[in-house]
Design goal:
Helix content: 25-40%
Strand content: 15-25%
CATH class: Alpha Beta
Largest sheet: 4 strands, parallel
CATH superfamily: AF0625-like
Low-confidence stretches: 106-110
Order of helices and strands: EHEHEHE
Distance between the termini: 24 Å
Radius of gyration: 13 Å
Number of helices: 3
Length: 110
C-alpha cells in the first residue's frame, strides 16, 4: 500500500529509448515515476546489458520497486533482465516489488 505522497521508482528496459521513455508519460498521475530507462539500441557503454542493469538498480535512490520490460527485448535478454531484477529484490529485501513484463514471448514467470 502506498501513501498519498509516496513515489515508486520504476526502471524500464525497451528496444528503443524513445519508446521506453514514452512509458514515463503513461505513468503521469500515478504514484509511479520512471527513475531510469535502458534500451537495446544505444551504443556502448549506454545500451542495455543485464550486468549494467544491476549497476543501475543498485545506484538509484530511492531504490526502485518496479521493473518494466518492453516487448522488443529479445527473449534471452528478457529472461536475463528478469533474473537480475529477482536477485536485486531478494538482495535488498525490497518490499512489495512489481514486475511488469509486456513481452508476448514471456507468458508467465516462475
Amino acid at each position: 500500500m502506498t501513501s498519498q505522497h509516496e513515489r515508486i521508482s520504476v526502471v524500464g528496459v525497451g528496444k528503443y529509448r524513445a519508446i521506453a521513455q514514452y512509458a514515463s508519460k503513461v505513468l503521469d498521475g500515478t504514484p509511479f515515476h520512471m527513475a531510469a530507462v535502458m534500451d537495446a539500441m544505444s551504443p556502448d557503454p549506454y545500451n542495455f546489458k543485464p550486468e549494467r542493469m544491476g549497476l543501475v538498480l543498485r545506484s538509484l535512490n530511492p531504490e526502485p520497486r518496479c521493473f518494466l520490460v518492453g516487448e522488443g527485448i529479445p527473449e534471452e535478454d528478457n529472461a536475463a533482465a528478469v533474473e537480475v531484477w529477482k536477485e536485486f529484490i531478494k538482495e535488498r529485501e525490497v518490499k512489495h516489488p512489481l514486475l511488469i513484463n509486456v513481452s508476448s514471448r514471456m507468458r508467465y514467470l516462475k
